[in-house]
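User: Some background: our group keeps a shared notebook of sequences we're curious about, and every so often someone picks one and asks for a predicted structure to add to the entry. Today it's my turn. The entry only has the sequence so far, pasted here. Could you supply the structure so I can complete it?
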Amino acid sequence: MNTYSRFADFQYSRSSESCELKFTEFETEWFKYRKFKESDFPVLFKWHSSVENMGYRRDGTKSESETRKYMEWIIAEANADKCKNFWFAVERKLDNTLIGEGIILDVPENPELGWLVDKNCWGNGYGIEIGNALLTYSFQVLNLRRIIAACHVENHASYKLMEKIGMRREAHFIKEKPYGDEWCDRYQYAILREEWENFKIRLFDKESREYYNLGRCEGG
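Assistant: Of course. Here's the predicted structure to add to the notebook entry:
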């Protein structure tokens, strides 16, 4: 599996002007990135009620009713005339199985990446595939200049993933977010469009699959 997804072979042309903020579904070699739909609820609830999947997420685990409200919101966002928060259901093309979600928040003011990979799919490089696809969408489709990602400092898999897709650590916030009964430290990573373009060129020169192998890719 080419976890970099050959930059997804996007069927779009990027203007030098700002793009209209519409939710656009797309595909990579291995996955479909589509809108969530009501029939996805059982899988979404399985993920969002799982401590393994949600342990490091800011919003934590959710009840069934909380997950229902969450789903209603992300569907409404995707269908808005001007979409500012993009939640992609990531579907494996081989068997049409949902394996995770890809997230681009707060576009265009303060764009931020996020992702989740079903715990039963960890260890396949899916997190890197999703991260690279989201960066491609951010820069080629949404025409963003810069994007960030953040995680709990103990979420080693998440920040290693950020580094694998070319992002650089630019901040270590001390006791910045509540985590249970305590305040936690958080790393923030970022990448500029020109940095991504340069990273893309360097990455295509690498031939060893081990270079891309992250191992257990947990949620961001």
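Suggested note for the entry: The chain has a mean pLDDT of 85. The helical segments are 41-48, 51-54, 64-79, 126-141, 156-164, 193-204.
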